[in-house]
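[step 3/7] inverse_fold.run input=structure_tokens len=73
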């Protein structure tokens, strides 16, 4: 495997691991093991920014209404 291929594989792995860590933090908070405010302020800011970004992307990707009572037009 070439050096650029290795770097690309590592970058993709990093992206996947970030998602795992976000989910782990959410589980720990939901179970009361830690509080969001226990995290350093910089970590809180980054997590909030990612949550907002993911929420806005989810809204953009939702092409059809999830409520069967909603009309398309």
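[step 3/7] decode complete -> sequence:
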């Amino acid at each position: 495997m070439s050096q650029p291929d290795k770097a690309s594989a590592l970058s993709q792995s990093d992206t996947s691991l970030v998602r795992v860590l976000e989910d782990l933090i959410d589980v720990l908070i939901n179970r009361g093991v830690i509080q969001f405010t226990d995290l350093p302020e910089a970590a809180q800011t980054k997590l909030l920014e990612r949550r907002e970004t993911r929420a806005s992307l989810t809204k953009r990707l939702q092409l059809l209404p999830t409520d069967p009572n909603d009309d398309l037009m």
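[step 4/7] annotate
The chain has a mean pLDDT of 85.
The helical segments are 3-30, 41-61.
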